[in-house]
Amino acid sequence: MARNSSGRRVRHTDFLDNGVVAQYTGSGLLPGEGGGGSIGAYLVQRAMPHLPPWVTAAGIGIAGGLGSLQWAQSAAAGVGLTLASVGLTGATWWMGKSTTQQRRLHSAITVAAASAWTTAACLAGPTAGPLPDLYLMGAPVVALSWNIRMILRRNDDPVGQNGDKGLLEKVGLARAQIGNAKVEPNRVTAPLAVEAGEQTNDDVSKALGRIASALDLPTSAVRYRPDPDSSRRGDLVIVPEDMLADVVEWDGPSNLGGSIADPLVIGRYDDGAPMLLWLPGDPEAKRNSTHVLVAGGTGSGKGDTALNLQTEILSRTDVILWLSDPKAFQDFRPLLPGIDWAVEGGAPTELMVEALQAAIPARTRWLGSHHYRQWVPACAQTQNDPAHSCRPGGRACGCEGMPFLVAWMEEAANTLRALGDDAFTGIAQEARSAGISLIVSLQRPSYDQMSTSTRASLPSVIALGCDPRDEGFSLPESVIDAGAHPGAWGNRRPGYCYLVSPGIDEDRYASPGRTRAFTHRATALMEQLAAWALANGATADPVTAGAAVSIAGNAYTGHAAEAASTPQLTVVHREDDMPHGSRHVDPEDADIDPEADLPEPEQGDDAPIFGQETGRKPSPEEARELFAQALEEFEQNGQMIVGPVDFTDWCDRNQLSRSWVSLRLKEAAIDGRLEPTNTTGRWRIVPILAAA
């Protein structure tokens, strides 16, 4: 009998015969357990399951003796007893058709022999002729045959044909063989082999729902792990009790001050083991770097899952985080001080995507020049190793290290709608070699939202509860066949998830887990973690920051943005900075005679309406100057993605028309001051230093 820590008896699962699964509560006593420690009591308890055949044999002898007192030498009783014997034997044969042929025959022979002897004993007397000898020899033999059968049926032979089809027969796997089960706390694992040439592992996967129904368990509690070296063998795993029902609140990061190369702990599996996720690769462990898809319906717990991951990331010292969140940081605001660059949706996110595309070749070039085939923790340190020097001659270069970069796209469906379903394709395909991990979070990663190329480039997935029809968008087919069904949860169990990622044992892919919950009590601790990350975490290296500034200019607000944007332009802010004796006149107005008459009004000056062709038409030289000033204003304000609609107020102030702005945008693109984006009619401003 198994007991838990409180002494309560624990329910187990035992595999009997050909796949019969019996649920029972252990009540056996070991020597010295209860019963005063009597060995005799223990032996009696162990013998009790084998007593019924002997009790039945004794009852038949008594019935024959008592019957002879009533019906001895009675012809009518003989006819009645004979018919009863034949009828009972026939009924036994008929009722045994649902069992194996061996059990059916054994039962019918036993009933026929017992009823024949009872009939003869009732009519002639139990001591007449050979009847006592038949009883003394036959009854023990029949009773022992049933004892032997009971012993043999508990010996689960994976290659032999057992006697009771039971559960597997009900689910269409009657000839499957189950081996010796491995019983662990809240988990039973049994090797299973289906009939050779008739069934495959796919048949077992299709039967998992029916097995769960027969055991009265949730669908996710029954899983199947196919043997990669066989198409008919695997392990059947049953978890009878949901140990994830209790909510576990987040109480801090698992490895404060560690490396991003160490595993991130985001929750626990149903057997209590931690859920681990690795982002960078490890050449020694033969593990590749990865991107992650976080998928789940509304209310499935994506927000808490994201917080589990982000708090783990910010607690490491060799990684920076870029975050795009169209929800205006509703869930992540306490962590903002520790995040290197955070933007909302729309044009700022589009700019971040452009910056990522620019950072990939810059980071890859740095890694290659320092002789790194992929990002490893040594990349984040000052390069004092001659083996990783970018200088010729084997001298250490002393270059500043490059931290790992995590680019997080929250509610990515908004970004995909704005930029197109292949917005992340290039990043997902190329970023891993640059020490960048892309994390995409959205509700429904269907193919009408995300291109198949992008989805194929996201090898890791955290699949939370979803619509049953969306399971195939989140998880690989092999994991679903093994018993993973996030559609069974929907939004009723927030935080329940499946984790598929490099570095995790594939046997774990179909095992459900649950992320930790973030309540209002976690806010203060998250703020402390963000302050710690700001003081002790990594900052963007010059290569990454330089690439970001070259695209985003002042819009890149990372900790290293100021250093990356040098040289700085000198701006006059105070009157004392100007040359003494000047007239405080703008240089552009230096040649204007204040006594001269104003120029005559030009046609259109009286009706400067935006969107119509009635605005004033400036000269080409004046037009370029005006438009250059407008782009500088946008850049200084951090708005690096523009289109004609963004010039509405500016056109009103300068009395210019929309068609004029469209022409100037095209001219600026030809001059290299603008770059086209993935969205028609939208342009990215090239920072003025980069353009120069």
Can you describe what's shown?
Residues 577-587 have a biased composition (Basic and acidic residues). InterPro entries: FtsK/SpoIIIE/SftA, FtsK_dom, P-loop_NTPase. The protein is α+β, with helices and mostly antiparallel strands and 692 residues long. The protein folds into four domains: 11-27 and 165-238, Threonyl-tRNA Synthetase, Chain A, domain 2 (2-Layer Sandwich); 51-153; 264-472 and 512-555, P-loop containing nucleotide triphosphate hydrolases (Rossmann fold), CATH 3.40.50; 608-691, Arc Repressor Mutant, subunit A. It contains 21 helices and 20 strands. The termini are far apart.
Q: Short summary of the structure?
A:
This is Plasmid transfer protein TraB. With 692 residues, this protein is of the alpha+beta class.
Mean pLDDT: 80
| CATH T-level topology of the largest domain | Rossmann fold
Return the domain count: 4
Q: Characterize the largest beta sheet: strand count, sense, and whether it forms a barrel.
A: 10 strands, mixed
Features:
single chain; 692 residues; alpha+beta; Threonyl-tRNA Synthetase, Chain A, domain 2; Rossmann fold; 10-stranded mixed beta sheet
